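User: Show me a protein chain along with its predicted structure.
Assistant: Here is one chain, sequence first, then structure tokens.
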Amino acid sequence: MKKFAWTLLIATFLVGCGTKKRTTYSGNSGKRTATQTYNNTSSAGVPMPEDSGRFMEFPVASIEDYIDTFSEIAQSEMKAYGIPASITLAQGILESGFGKGSLTLKTNNHFGIKCHTGWEGPYALHDDDEAGECFRKYNHPMYSFRDHSLFLTTRSRYAPLFSLRQDDYKGWAYGLKNAGYATDRKYPHKLISFIERYKLYEYDKAVLQDNYVVNKKSASGRYKVHIVQEGDTLYSISRRYLVSVEELRELNELNDNVISIGQELRIQSTNIR
């Protein structure tokens, strides 16, 4: 029933758009394969649902249920950004307590991403390495998965990961730890354990068998000019075009988050068509 509800929700967001059915690998014996309806006209994978401003809950019963619910999103993010779906799923399982952790339940934050400089969106305070740390909050979990992709692809310390093969989940697991994603010295082992126990690498294989290559060069020349309107902030613009605040600042040579009405901002995004 929950899978049906998830599929119906996605279909509702995308009504009127060009859609295509896609069945993804399910590595769990006896479970239905995950079939969801998504818009496939964008080179950036699953389009994000419009933020209604209402916090949406997605309770899951088990790790298998978590994988069944979010596997296709992880695969689509892999196609768009080159991050192995197995790594995304394993991190989501670990960081969110397979969707049942107290932080995730109140924030839809599946990857433990903290606020950091430039974050202007909703947040929640949560005890982690220190008491009362600031964590990003999302009204829909799909925004968390997209933010995870943007977080890894727009920070230079994670750049070495993208020289690894997309099926090298062990290299990615150790690379994330070496780049400082987590302080737990056993972090790579935990990710690898989830990947191998639940055969998450099969989701990577399914994407790679489609011969899908992330073509970053083809997107490098596509820009859109956004003219700042009253009420615009770098954060609201970043959400509109699905890019990070840091990327907007770098591309437009901004030293801070201050923008003015009428200012022209260059936008580079795989979502621009």
